Amino acid sequence: MASGDTLVVFTPLHNEPPASNAATIDLRNQHPVLDFDTTTGESAVFSTIMPRNYAGGGVTVYVHWAASTATTGTIGWLVGFERIGTALDIDADSFAADNTVTAATVSGTSGIVVITNTTFTDGADMDSVAVGEAFRLKITRDVAGDSAAGDAELLAVEIKET
To answer: 82-93, pLDDT tens digit by residue?
Structure first.
């Protein structure tokens, strides 16, 4: 697969909510979104298999989001991989350390989508996820690192080959 090619896309309907502090499903003009609170680090979890056409290098995770009501301030995200493969005991979470999507300024117009990203290097940074292996991706609003009031609405997550 070539650098920059899309490997995986997740939408709000792919979410497998964690047992606590889960982002909540909502609709915005019939668009499914996941609402992330402004004061609690709520999360969404997505599962899939790393495609066979993945070349084994790093990846960039793009987060497509909008502010629910804010037209000022910033919103940031934390993103972490969990390799399931064939060795993980799935009775407990085992996510690698989060990478930070630097807080970005919300649009001055409510409803405009902002796309921000973070890059993962191959190996421990992305929990050593390999071709053909199951993995999970966790997205959490970085409430300690952003300043926008109200919910952040997640519309999609895209993983691209770096």
So the answer is: 999 888 899 999
